[in-house]
Amino acid sequence: MLNRTIFLASQQVAVLIGSAASAVDIxxxxxxxxxxxRVTSRSYEVETLGIQPGYDNMWLHPMIEKAHEDGKVxxxxxxxxxxxxxxxxxxxxxxxxxxxxxxxxxxxxxxxGPLYKHVFPPLLAxxxxxxxxxxxxxxxxxxxxxxxxxxxxxxxxxALPSEEEMMQDVKDFYSQLEASGxxxxxxxxxxxxQTGSQPSEEWRKKMYSESSRKRHTRPEAYSDEAGxxxxxxxxxxxxxxxxxxx
Length: 246
Known about the structure:
With about 250 residues, the protein is α/β, with parallel strands linked by helices. Helices cover about 30% and strands about 15% of the residues. Helix 5 (about 200-215) packs across helix 6 (about 230-240).
């Protein structure tokens, strides 16, 4: 599907509706071949509108106010562009064609479950676990904390609640979402509930801040650049404290 999208956008003016993860990925890919890429967003800082850092053919706009019959698109701030194609970037869907659990774990409207704390299916824990489902999170710290929890459960160092207790926790969580009016498809959205984590080390905070700055200014190259050697050394020193590194 992505290859087809890139082909359709070749030498075209593409307007993308949405600015979250799928829009970011699609805009970066089609910017390599498109004449212009116009990304629209509901939430933005005024100073971020306009041409985007690292590109000479990508702009950020407020949402579309009107699409005209002649192909002209008017945005809420009064600016406009002539669009060849309009892409609705509606996000990603969870799909696990390789996983057969006889219905114990299923996907329903982007809710993967039942999963205790988004990780363990109560009936199959700790032997089956899922890493990285939640979104609108700090991803790599999340992966690390989840992996440590899973390793602890598999080794016997960490005891999970009983199957019944985990399942009740899942049911209570679903009930809280429903009572708060949160759609099922937002089950794994943790934007407003990332609490209880260990405080990040100072080197980790600095790495994250520097990476974010580079990603904004050099989106196509930042991940290939070497990190700060001092911060890397501090990270290795901290990692050496863990039993698995002795």
